[in-house]
Amino acid sequence: MSSWIAEPAAKPLRGELRVPSDKSISHRAVLLAGLAQGSSVIEQPLLGEDVLHSIAAIEALGAQTSRQGARLEITGCRQPLSPAAPIYCGNAGTLIRLLAGLICGRGIDCVLTGDASLSRRPMGRIAEPLNKMGAEIATTAAGTPPITVKAVKGLASIEYKMPVASAQVKSAVLLAGLVAEDGATVIEPAPCRDHTERMLPAFGAQVTRNGQVVHVQNCPALQPVQMSIPADPSSAAFFVAAASMVKGSDLLLREVGINPTRTGALELLRRMGADIEIVNQQKIGEEPVADIRVRAEPLRGIEIGAAEVPAAIDELPVLLAAAATASGTTIVSGAAELRAKESDRIAAMAALLANLGIACQEKPDGIVVEGGQPTGGEVDSQGDHRIAMAGATLALCCDREVRISDCANVATSFPGFDQHAAAAGWKIHPSGPTPTS
């Protein structure tokens, strides 16, 4: 277990940097390349712990990989092999759900496991539609990992209306549709991340979209690709929020993905009064990319409703940190999905804010935050990378340092977070044992 001490800002955040590459896109590129017929090259993939588990997973299925600097080459196995041992997914919810969809119907037996946090997360939401397609997928009685996938060859098509907007569930069904007779159709209740739909055509699959209805055609044999991965907007959000919060800051973030399904946090921060400029727009593959310039401005509280949550689901912890320093009240509702993440993020952020002197009220599907002056102190990240980084962000505006426990999982999505922070003038360093009184 590692802990941090995050210091209040001694000066404005300045400079320019590129945060690590997009985790969601990296997972998808690795998994699809692992089953392609030929060798794919992926430039600048995120090599955090979560994606390293994806690389190990495709190797267990028979793919071959090699790395040289920021270049990852994957020779796909096309027809995966039943692995000799369970595939360990660590803390990666994206990996376990997408992999289950990708391998079912391909004639292999496989068990997918994870760490203690992942082993508490709901998997019935993917097992239900996949089993309706003819897969044989089992979870624990509580609907949690391990996930057991039985050898079934081919699947039936499905038209699946998701009860809750979830890019992971949508992707699992679409990936299973690659081996379904007439493909698969997913109906979204609200727009959610579309990286899978954008990427599949590069691997040779045909995807059509009509509003919130997405269809993929049968395409069991994928073709190899060469692609580059943009910087992760969820990682960039911590620096966007930080520069917005610290008076006098002026920060430039390079090559950040601005996929419309991922820009919810930027729009919400703008509503709070943030000065955010999008410049140098371009495309990397099918993903829109830009540089983001942020200059500090006073923030104000806002209301965030259910329709706005899916496009900012991963960034809500840092948005709550920003809300803690804003004038007025911020109300988040329709965000019950936060309770099914690496931690119960509603409860975790409520505890974090309260420990740092910010008045807040936890709701079943959200939280109410009263902006004020955070005091500093000690907080528990509950092993959740985004809670740890949100705590470090809020520390910038505290009146004394913040000690944050259990930060090791930050490496799953943002390896080198403290070094990136230091490049902008933000001080985070390892903590020794908590002093006893």
Structural class: alpha/beta
Rg of Cα set: 21 Å
Overall geometry comes to: globular
**Major sheet attributes:** 4 strands, mixed
Report the strand count.
Answer: 24
Distance between the termini: 22 Å
Question: What fraction of residues sit in β-strands?
Answer: 15-25%
Major β-sheet strand ordering: 22-23-1-24
Mean pLDDT: 96
Oligomer: single chain
Low-confidence stretches: none
Number of helices: 12
State the helicity in percent bands.
Answer: 25-40%
What's the short version?
By secondary structure, the chain is an alpha/beta fold. The chain has helices at 23-34, 49-60, 93-103, 124-132, 167-177, 195-199, 233-245, 264-271, 316-325, 345-355, 385-395, 417-423; strands at 4-6, 14-17, 39-43, 64-68, 71-75, 87-88, 110-113, 137-138, 147-149, 158-161, 184-187, 207-210, 213-216, 226-228, 250-257, 275-284, 287-295, 303-304, 329-332, 360-363, 366-370, 377-380, 402-405, 428-430.
Description:
- With 437 residues, this protein is α/β, with parallel strands linked by helices.
- It is built from twelve helices and 24 strands.
- The strands form six sheets. The protein has a four-stranded mixed sheet.
- α1 runs parallel beside α2 (49-60), α4 (124-132) runs parallel beside α5 (167-177) and α9 (316-325) runs parallel beside α11.
- It is globular, with a radius of gyration of 21 Å.
- The mean pLDDT is 96.
Which labels suit this protein?
12 helices; alpha/beta; 4-stranded mixed beta sheet; single chain; 437 residues
Layout of helices and strands:
Elements: E1 4-6, E2 14-17, H1 23-34, E3 39-43, H2 49-60, E4 64-68, E5 71-75, E6 87-88, H3 93-103, E7 110-113, H4 124-132, E8 137-138, E9 147-149, E10 158-161, H5 167-177, E11 184-187, H6 195-199, E12 207-210, E13 213-216, E14 226-228, H7 233-245, E15 250-257, H8 264-271, E16 275-284, E17 287-295, E18 303-304, H9 316-325, E19 329-332, H10 345-355, E20 360-363, E21 366-370, E22 377-380, H11 385-395, E23 402-405, H12 417-423, E24 428-430
Parallel strand pairs: 2-15, 3-14, 6-7, 10-11, 18-19, 22-23
Antiparallel strand pairs: 1-23, 1-24, 3-5, 4-5, 7-9, 8-9, 11-13, 12-13, 15-17, 16-17, 19-21, 20-21
